[in-house]
Amino acid sequence: MPEKTFIVSHWMEGTGPYAEVAVSSRVRLARNIRDIPFPYLASNTQTNKVREMICSGAAEQENKFDDLHFLKMEEAENIDRHVLVEKHLISPLLAKESHNSGVFLRKDEAVSIMVNEEDHLRIQSIFPGLQLEKAWEEVDSFDNLFENKLDYAFHERYGYLTACPTNVGTGLRASVMLHVPALIKTKQFNRILGALSQVGVAVRGLYGEGTDIIGNMVQISNQITLGQSEKEIIRNLFSVTRQVIEQENAARQSLLNENREVIADQSWRALGVLKYAHLLSSQEAIQLLSDIRLGFELGLVPRIERRLLNQMLVLIRPACLQMLAGKDLDARERDQERARQIRESLKGLAS
Amino acid sequence: MCQECREEKANVFFTKIVNGVKTEVHLCEKCAREKGDLEFTFEPKFSLQNFFASFLSEPLSEIWSAPQREQHPSKVQCSNCSLTFTQFSQIGRFGCSSCYSSFGEDKLQPLFRRIHGSINHNGKVPRRLGGTTRIKREIEKLRQQLQQHIQMEEYEKAAITRDKIKSLEKELDELDETDEVDETDEPDEKEG
């Protein structure tokens, strides 16, 4: 297994509006081709045909696909597939079960288009900060291109038809990754959680559905896909997100006013551990990275780029570590490699 | 013994069922956490299925108890991919796009209402295939306008709106002749 370098995805840049809380914004569209069974039920011949139709549709487009390259899942190394999952560019389902699956990846990794996932086509875009509108514009334009070439499954009443009834209609899922340490520390997050579920917004942990909240990272996304227009869905999620961000910023301010030394101490300790530790579990690393992030956003620890923090959040995960090391690692070796990668990343940082 | 690292004592036990195939998994806490990172990340099936089953159980019973003519729900089957409605309610996934028309409104609409609070798509319409839908929506909107004009006794405006509707209907007829419309339902098109 050759050593490879880590490519920074566009969403990790740490730029964009509200980047002090909003890490990234993602929008994805689910689309299918009329009458061909959905990938889990389709025959090998059928999924193969779907992939060919989609690829040749893309090939006929001018320049919009120039920056994208297509990767067949069965030809990708196991480790590379998992690295894509860890960077949130493809789903674990796509990495795990190949039904003649594949992915178009744009060079900047802001666009990834999955083929034969749960649906025939999943067009996804991720931007840094709170930029749902921008991500929507990207997926919308790719959707228009595919629509010229493919006979989409579309119903007059129900809209775009999907394998799962929770996606029918627009087929649109928008989500925002938020770092909300102050809301969690001040025990306000549960109250907000209740409010969010009442306005049709789902909340998940860092790694998506069914995962706990770790490192004070939460993902919030729209629950409803049928009945509202795409713009409405995006606008709703945007305004809900902005309110959460406001509350988080207010909670940060009160932490700063009342517990400045405690927060500063926590951030500096986190920095100390990460700079010098030789063994780090992912759980510990994620928590410490959150402590540093909060300290940085409040101006309590030295300048550290958000981009570096986002990057570390990804490269401490198992597949990325093994890719960087160029070999398989067991759990203990991963803890060692994780600590080493973080030490390297923080080397130049003044203390 | 942990199946992953083969060093630590296993203390996390669970059974995975993937496509009906059962697998026993024994891991130590550390590997389970790591594995969790690798395999159980944003996977839609887990929680969604439970969540979804709760939606389905009721409509299904409603359908069963309703005085349905001869058709037993288990017999309802998609003509294109052969998935039955019963299978659909178990796995929570349609088999193909034709399932949506094969399973019928009486079964799907209560389900959609529960999940989404709505049964009508109000978003994007594909340019090429959604041609008639676009026009139909426009006509619907104009008809509502027409009613308002009549109520407000704005007869001149009403006449203009009526002419617009007529020309759109003509356009629709022409499209219907050239383009075979999907065999899906046509909601009350005759009225007025």
Question: What would you say this structure looks like, in words?
Answer:
The complex is a heterodimer of chains A (351) and B (192). Chain A is α+β, with helices and mostly antiparallel strands and 351 residues long. Chain A has a domain at 258-346. Chain A has 11 helices and 10 strands. In chain A, the strands form 2 sheets. Chain A has an 8-stranded antiparallel sheet with strand order 2-3-4-5-1-8-10-9, covered by helices on one side. In chain A, strand 3 (102-106) and strand 4 (111-115) form a beta hairpin. In chain A, helix 8 runs antiparallel to helix 9 (306-315). The longest helix of chain A has 47 residues, at 230-276. Chain B is mainly alpha-helical and 192 residues long. In chain B, 52% of the residues lie in helices and 7% in strands. Chain B contains 7 helices and 2 strands; from the N terminus they run E-E-H-H-H-H-H-H-H. Chain B has helices at 29-39, 45-65, 85-91, 99-102, 105-116, 131-151, 155-178; strands spanning 12-18, 21-27. A two-stranded antiparallel ribbon of chain B has the order 1-2. In chain B, helix 2 packs across helix 5 (105-116) and helix 6 (131-151) runs antiparallel to helix 7 (155-178). The longest helix of chain B has 24 residues, at 155-178. Classes of the chains: A alpha+beta (351), B mainly alpha (192). Chains A and B meet through helix 2, helix 3, helix 4, strand 6 and strand 7 of A and helix 1, helix 2, helix 5 and helix 6 of B.
> How do the strands line up in the largest sheet of chain A?
2-3-4-5-1-8-10-9
The end-to-end span of chain A amounts to 36 Å
- Uncertain spans of chain A: none
- Helix proportion range of chain B: 40-55%
Please describe the biggest sheet of chain A, giving its number of strands, its sense, and whether it closes into a barrel: 8 strands, antiparallel
**Largest interface, by Cβ-Cβ below 8 angstroms: which chains and how many residues each?**
A-B, 66 and 60 residues
Number of helices of chain B: 7
- Shape estimate of chain B: elongated
| Outline type of chain A | globular
Order of helices and strands of chain A: EHEHHEEEHEEEHHEEHHHHH
**Oligomer category:** heterodimer
H and E order of chain B? EEHHHHHHH
Mean pLDDT of chain A: 94
